[in-house]
Amino acid sequence: MSGPRIEADLVKLRHNARIVVERLKAQGISVSAVTKAVCGEPAIAQAMLEGGAANLADARLRNVRKLRKAGITCPITLLRTPMLSQTNEVVTLCEASYNTEIAVISALAAAAIRCGTVHNVILMVEMGDLREGIMPKNLPNVVQQVEDMPGVILAGIGANFACLSGIPPDAAKMRALSRLASATERQCARPLQTISGGNSATLPWALSGTSAGRINNLRIGEAILLGVAPVSGDRINGLFTDAFTLVAEVIETDTKPASPVNNMTDPAWLRDRFTRASENGRRLIIALGHQDTDVSGLAMPAGYGLVGVTSDHLVVSTTDASLEVGSKVSFQMNYSAFMRAMAAPDIETILLHDIRAGHARDGEAFGKQLVHV
Ligand SMILES: *Cc1c(COP(=O)(O)O)cnc(C)c1O
């Protein structure tokens, strides 16, 4: 094992998925496990399916291709409205997609007919995040067009919250979504299969003890992967927040002066870099940088301070005297740091407790420790 890596603990992931799935099941809500932050890594998708997720969802076709190539056959829904240029591939790789544009839905329908299949369309409705979605007043019109279009089936409606605006859904918005679902069913004179109430940001609402109304699905990535509620950043009770760890290597340990002697540099820039450095600690350079992750989303280990970061060098201060060149330092990540590190070409993903690789016994031993959580 060499170079920077993300260690993914599949036992912890399965546990997180199972807890989220069970809690939502009690509310009549299924879980679509979202794999975009892990770039469609098949073993991680598999762990979430083993935890009870009903199906998978991803925003990018490249990730879906990777999942299919690895032999994953469960239904996969494309989360981001398909690019017009990719509709052919969407209908061959995905059972369903979230849609907002009738031009795209028409192209999906034509592609499905050419392929001899029928594609499931879930209409995304705008409920306040002001990212993607059909305005509620336009929904009946779009519903009718989809209903009248061979090659596609209207499988449901959905909404997304807290992505662009950062505002989580409230009970009134969720009730409004339920009303839209019922109105759409009346219009179509049949029940809708999927009424998807949002992403991890909708989880607190779903678990707050209120009635879920007509909502029967959530699309969950972050809450399962990182064990936190996205808007507050708070740990979700009973979940692991350390299923993923970023591990990187120390490449220099020489102590440098605490602030640079060069006074030509912009003082604001210097303040940003150097005020957080510990006065007494040693300075280390770790082989990690802006090109690998969102460094502002890394949690510094206890006793560490962030001095500064450039494309390829992470400078930290530390009180740990034992570190030397070649030592490994581990970081926990927020969502932004995590998804960028997962996508970084120089960071390898190491699967811990991968049953497929014959490490089942590790997993079992670990499973016993879960009792203490
Ligand atoms: C990314 C995304 C999700 C999953 O979001 P998490 O916060 O990771 O749960 C769900 N729905 C849509 C449309 C998305 O783009």
Amount of beta strand: 15-25%
Number of domains: 2
What's the helical proportion of residues?
A: 25-40%
Q: Looking at the structure, what is the overall shape? A: elongated
Structural class comes to alpha/beta
**And the CATH topology of the largest domain?**
TIM Barrel
Number of strands: 16
The average pLDDT value, as a whole number, equals: 90
The number of distinct helices, counting runs of at least 4 residues, comes to 12
Low-pLDDT stretches:
274-278, 358-373
Major pleated sheet: 8 strands, mixed
CATH class of the largest domain: Alpha Beta
Question: Can you summarize this structure?
Answer:
With 373 residues, this protein is α/β, with parallel strands linked by helices. Helix content is 32%, strand content 22%. Mean pLDDT is 90; it is low at 274-278 and 358-373.
Q: Care to describe what's here?
A:
This protein has about 375 residues and is α/β, with parallel strands linked by helices. It folds into 2 domains: about 10-225, Alpha-Beta Barrel (TIM Barrel); about 245-370, Lyase, Ornithine Decarboxylase, Chain A, domain 1. The protein is about 30% helix and about 20% strand. The protein contains 12 helices and 16 strands. The protein has helices at about 10-25, 40-50, 60-70, 85-95, 100-115, 140-145, 170-190, 205, 220-225, 265-275, 335-345, 360-370, and strands at about 5-10, 30-35, 55-60, 75-80, 95-100, 120-125, 150-160, 195, 215-220, 245-250, 280-285, 300, 305-310, 315-320, 330-335, 350. The strands form 2 sheets. Strands 1, 10, 11, 12, 13, 14, 15 and 16 form an 8-stranded mixed β-sheet that branches. Strands 8-7-6-5-4-3-2-9 form an 8-stranded parallel β-sheet. Helix 1 crosses helix 2 and helix 4 (about 85-95) packs across helix 5 (about 100-115). It is elongated, with a radius of gyration of 23 Å. Mean pLDDT is about 90; it is low at about 275-280 and about 360-373. Pyridoxal-5'-phosphate (PLP) binds next to strand 9 and helix 9.
